[in-house]
């Protein structure tokens, strides 16, 4: 678990990611946050499923948005829009994020009208 965290930190430091979500056992939270503090990386903790925690870390502005979106919520409690924004910020495939949003809101992609230019 910590090797993956170190790799995520490396990717952030090299500019490959602006925001990372890393899930790990709660018992490793202190060790993980100590690493992030050591490197001066902003982070936010979100309780996850039993005995696990999500650590969001990266650019301070991104982490500030995550704090606002996830405040007091678990991932499954977020609105469709919050889920979409968070997934997009984490760099998930934007087309898949759009399809996920449409599915969650009950709009089937086939029912969308395609507008063609004249």
Automatic annotation (TrEMBL):
Pfam families: DUF2023 (PF09633). It comes from the Bacteria. Residues 3-104 form the DUF2023 domain. This is DUF2023 family protein.
């Amino acid at each position: 678990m910590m090797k993956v965290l170190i790799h995520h930190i490396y990717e952030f430091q090299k500019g490959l990611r602006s925001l990372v979500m890393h899930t790990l056992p709660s018992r490793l939270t202190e060790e993980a946050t100590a690493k992030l503090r050591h490197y001066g990386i902003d982070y936010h903790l979100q309780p996850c499923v039993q005995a696990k925690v999500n650590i969001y870390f990266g650019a301070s502005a991104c982490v500030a948005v995550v704090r606002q979106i996830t405040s007091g919520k678990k991932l499954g409690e977020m609105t469709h829009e919050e889920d979409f924004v968070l997934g997009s910020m984490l760099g998930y495939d934007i087309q898949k994020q759009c399809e996920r949003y449409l599915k969650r809101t009950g709009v089937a992609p086939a029912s969308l009208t395609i507008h063609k230019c004249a």
